[in-house]
Design a protein that fits this description.
The protein has about 375 residues and is α/β, with parallel strands linked by helices. The chain is built from 14 helices and 14 strands. The strands form four sheets. Strands 6-13-12-11-10-9-8-7 form an eight-stranded parallel beta sheet.
């Protein structure tokens, strides 16, 4: 363990033997301090939407396809002009130093090792440049929480462009902090500085709760902001936090190069629908105009398959990767992706799908099973 400002950080660096991703949470809870774990694991209010995100994958069933004459399915794909070895990407997840002393740097190394796409957060524990260097040339996106101060936004975007990121993810569903009861119970304040916030007059985030940090972010976000970021960076802008066809079409009309279907892992609006339940309608409205990224509740290879078959082009995950980071550093992150890829390959074989493109045309059904 490493001690920073009185906070214990894991410094584990090892491969993990993983039976399944859900089992990682209990193991990570043993080594991540209570406040940090509550921030990572918790949702908003009574966690209803957080729980439904995973449970709702049971609303969708995969139709097995026999006599399909395939073997050794491939998880390789191409999205946003990027050649990837897996359709599973790292969701932008804040403050990874809460889980491991190397934070986003180790996550970037682990994602790069599996040929995946890494997205780093505005609220990262490490800088945009340091995270990019750790990825050693592997593709990365930068996620922007817009500040009320446009000059600060420009500064972050300048750094992201200089670091060679391939796209900007604009998060639009976090204009205020969701009511996160775990943070209230734990009186949680960030013990680790957020490298990208050092230019804020309010400081680097250390000693503040997430609500205080969000208070410095923009509460008013509209279509003009999408256009402005796209014109400023000349990079694809993916709008994150879309849960309805109407919002998806507004984002595309404003110049979004991608739609990111997500309810923030159940951390913002509690009582909203599970993301997998709204994905098909959004995909139908988008109709392949732009790629779709999906996250919230992904824990199984079959979940990845169902999301791709429901209209997603990339499937992101956050918490399981952070648990793998705490337990094994970069190698732990790599282990998490390898396990999910392995499960996906099995599902692909049994569903008669050779490629990721085949999954997108795979039949699904929807039987209403009682719990």
């Amino acid at each position: 363990m490493t001690m920073t400002n009185g906070y214990e950080q894991s410094d584990n660096e090892k491969k993990l033997e993983i039976v399944n991703l859900p089992s990682l949470e209990a193991e990570a809870k043993k080594i991540i301090p209570t406040g940090g774990f509550g921030y990572i694991a918790g949702g908003s209010e009574d966690d209803w939407t957080l729980k439904q995100n995973t449970a709702a994958f049971g609303h969708v069933q995969i139709v097995p396809k026999a006599l399909s004459n395939i073997e050794q399915p491939s998880t390789a794909t191409k999205v946003f002009g990027l050649d990837l070895k897996t359709p599973i990407m790292m969701a932008p997840t804040a403050a990874q130093g809460l889980a491991h002393a190397q934070g986003e740097k180790d996550t970037a190394k682990g994602v790069a090792a599996v040929g995946g796409l890494m997205a780093q957060s505005t609220y990262s524990s490490t800088s945009i440049a340091d995270t990019a260097v750790a990825g050693d040339g592997a593709p990365q996106f930068f996620q922007l929480y817009m500040s009320k101060d446009w000059s600060f936004n420009e500064s972050l975007l300048d750094e992201a462009v200089k670091a060679g990121v391939k796209g900007i993810i604009l998060t639009v569903d976090a204009t205020v902090d969701g009511y996160r009861e775990a943070d209230i119970i734990n009186n949680f304040q960030f013990p680790i500085p957020m490298a990208n916030l050092e230019k804020f007059s309010e400081g680097d985030g250390k000693g503040k709760g997430i609500g205080e940090i969000y208070a410095a972010a923009a509460q008013k976000i509209n279509e003009d902001d999408v256009r402005r970021i796209a014109e400023y960076t000349r990079l694809p802008v993916i709008v994150k936090g879309i849960e309805s066809p109407e919002d998806a079409m507004r984002a595309i009309g404003a110049g979004a190069a991608g739609i990111y279907v997500s309810n923030h892992g159940g951390r913002q609006l509690n009582g909203g629908p599970a993301s997998i339940d709204v994905l098909p309608a959004i995909a139908k409205a988008v109709n392949h105009q732009v790629p779709i990224i999906f996250d919230s509740g992904v824990r199984r290879g079959s979940h990845v398959f169902k999301a791709l078959a429901s209209g997603a082009d990339l499937v992101a995950m956050g918490r399981p990767v952070i648990y793998g980071l705490a337990l094994g550093g970069a190698q732990g992150v790599q282990s998490v992706f390898e396990e999910l890829n392995h499960e996906l390959e099995i599902t692909m074989q049994l569903a008669g799908t050779k490629t990721i493109e085949d999954i997108k045309h795979a039949p699904l059904t929807h039987f209403n099973y009682a719990d």
